[in-house]
Design brief:
Largest sheet: 7 strands, mixed
Shape: globular
Distance between the termini: 9 Å
Order of helices and strands: EEEHEHHEEEHEEEEEEEHEHEHEE
Helix content: 10-25%
Strand content: 25-35%
Number of strands: 18
Strand order of the largest sheet: 8-5-4-3-2-1-18
Radius of gyration: 18 Å
C-alpha cells in the first residue's frame, strides 16, 4: 500500500480555496495510521484540511521539526479536536521549547521578538498532548525514523543571523539545536521530509548516508533553508541530490525563490514546488 503525503501548510497555496501562510505542515497517511509533521502557524491547517477533504481521525503522532511558531502554531488547534485520540503523542527534540527569538528589522523593528511555540508545554498537556523528547536519531515505527542531534559541518550550515537566543549579554546566535527531520520508508527507497533543515540539508544527507547506510532516496520534501546560503552552495546541493539519485524533489517554505529556480532548471520534471495541496503517493 503506498503512503499518501499531503502538504497542508506552506507559504504558497497550490489551488483555489486553499490558504497559504508562512509555515509548514505535512499529513502522512500510511498503513500504520496517520501522522502530522509540523502544524504550520495555526491558520491554514484547519482551513486546508477541510478544503482538501481530509481529517485527523485516528491521528497517531505529531512530529515537530523544531520549535518556531510557524511549525508549532497549530498544535493547540490539533489538541482541541474531538476526533483526535487522546492522549496524543508529540515527538520533539528536548530543546523544542527554547525561547527562540527573531530580529529581522522588517518584521521586528523594535528589536528581537519571541518566535517560538505560541503555547506552553503545560497548556498543551492540559489539552491531552503528551510530549516524548528524543535527542538523537531514532526509529519510531517500522516506517518512520526521527532524524535529530546530528553532526553538523559548519561550512554546510545556513547562516541565518536573524535567529537569536536571549543571553546574559543580550542576544546570541541561535544554533537551532532542536532541528529534526523524518525519514519515511517505502516499498522502494525512503523519503526524506524536512521542516526547515536548520542543521543544513547537506549535513542531514551526510548523516543518513554515513550513519544509516542510505544511498538512494525516493523523494526529498519540505523546507531546505537554502535562501540563507551563498549562491555557490547550490551546485554542491545539486551534486549531493544527484548522488542520492532522488526521483522527486519537492521544496517549499524556506527554500527561497533563487535556489528553487536553480533546482528547477537542473532537475526539470523531477522538480516540484511543495505548496499547500500537493499530494504525493510513494
Amino acid at each position: 500500500m503506498p503512503h499518501r503525503l499531503t502538504v497542508l501548510c506552506d507559504n504558497y497555496a497550490g489551488g483555489p480555496g486553499l490558504v497559504g501562510e508562512h509555515g509548514f505542515s505535512l499529513l502522512i497517511e500510511t498503513a500504520e495510521g496517520k501522522y502530522l509533521f509540523d502544524t504550520g502557524a495555526g491558520l491554514a491547517l484547519p482551513l486546508n484540511l477541510n478544503e482538501l477533504g481530509r481529517d485527523l481521525k485516528g491521528l497517531r503522532t505529531v512530529f515537530l521539526s523544531h520549535g518556531h511558531y510557524d511549525h508549532t502554531g497549530g498544535l493547540a488547534w490539533v489538541g482541541n479536536q474531538a476526533e483526535v485520540p487522546k492522549p496524543l503523542e508529540v515527538i520533539a527534540h528536548p530543546q523544542v521549547f527554547l525561547p527562540h527569538m527573531g530580529q529581522h528589522p522588517e518584521h521586528h523593528p523594535s528589536g528581537p521578538e519571541y518566535i517560538g511555540c505560541p503555547a506552553t508545554m503545560g497548556a498543551l498537556a492540559a489539552q491531552g498532548l503528551r510530549f516524548r523528547f528524543i535527542g538523537r536519531t531514532t526509529r519510531i515505527t517500522p516506517l518512520i525514523h526521527y532524524i535529530t542531534g546530528i553532526e553538523r559541518s559548519p561550512d554546510q550550515l545556513p547562516l541565518d543571523t536573524n535567529l537569536v537566543l536571549p543571553s546574559a549579554d543580550g542576544f546570541t546566535q541561535d544554533p537551532m539545536p532542536d532541528d529534526a527531520s523524518l525519514l519515511l520508508e517505502t516499498d522502494t527507497y525512503p523519503v526524506l521530509i524536512l521542516g526547515c533543515a536548520h542543521s543544513g540539508v547537506l549535513n542531514i544527507l551526510d548523516h543518513i548516508g554515513a550513519e544509516m547506510g542510505i544511498r538512494r532516496l525516493k523523494a526529498i520534501l519540505g523546507g531546505t533553508h537554502l535562501m540563507f546560503f551563498p549562491p555557490e552552495i547550490i551546485p554542491r546541493v545539486i551534486a549531493k541530490f544527484e548522488e542520492f539519485d532522488i526521483e522527486w524533489i519537492g521544496v517549499s517554505h524556506c527554500t527561497g525563490m533563487a535556489a528553487a529556480i536553480e533546482l528547477g532548471r537542473h532537475f526539470g520534471p523531477r522538480f516540484m514546488t511543495a505548496c499547500a495541496g500537493l499530494t504525493l503517493e510513494v
